[in-house]
Amino acid sequence: MRTIDVVCCHAGGEIGNVVVSGVEPLPGATVREQMEALRADDRLRRFLLREPRGSVAVHADLIVPATREDCAYGYVIMEPTEYPLMSGSNTICVATVLLETGMVELQEPETVLRLEAPAGLVEVRAACRDGRAESIEFTNVPAFAVMLDAALEVDGRTLDADVAFGGMFYAIVDASALGFALTPDEARDLCDVGERIRVAAKEQLDERVTITQIAEPWQGVGATSKNAVVIAPGRLDRSATGTGLSARMAALHARGLMKVGDSMTHASVIGSTFDGRIVAETDEGIVPAIRGSGFITGRTTWYVDDRDPFPEGYLLSDTWPGRDVQS
To answer: What's the CATH architecture for 144-287?
Structure first.
């Protein structure tokens, strides 16, 4: 029976399980092309993320050989309804697993490595002690604002929304305008509203929007601001979301509120945090760096059984919300 070896991990509470062996080599001259090949087939994502092996709250990352000589490995990110070009929590999980399993030599007090994401080159600096990666800081792909304070019609009311790219295209709206305090008891309501915002923003503002950020008013440089990121098909990111923090800093930079060298922290609804800083400016926006910590929670071996009546898993609406799921 064929097996797939997975190291289980989370960053800020967001699950990013890392597939380290058992998958056939993918075609493609770049990791981006390999991601496209995996998406065209899609059996692996369904196998890993659907029940009975996965759930709507699980992401998975496939380690692949890098196609660039300056990178240690590449990785493909698989989320419940899409293959994002970049993800902060998943990048932190991948780097943590590579270092703590010995796939990349861990050096103290700091290990520097480069990874190839579908979005491009990602440089990682890991603070290491006693054989562990205590924190991971990665330099993200360039982030930029697409539009600021755009009028967005949702459920008969008009909201001000920013659209920004931080590795994924975000619709960012003000939590206070929606009456949210961003507390755990609001999770279901945040998801319901966030999904309606995502669909509306995709239709009205930018068809590239795939994710929503509901953020409290910015607390200033060096301070902590809370946010809630709603991932399709309608569930809350447990982490503070690295691409979301990058998109937020890009929008703040476009407003003139943040500059190179400035930092801020995002806190999730469960209280986990990621730190962000602007390391450079580009013609369109900024180069952000994001720091957080990953934690290996276990190791599992999945069996690929030809007798299994659910070889690609299944979805049920009691745990998989939303009507426009790309299953």
So the answer is: Roll (3.10)
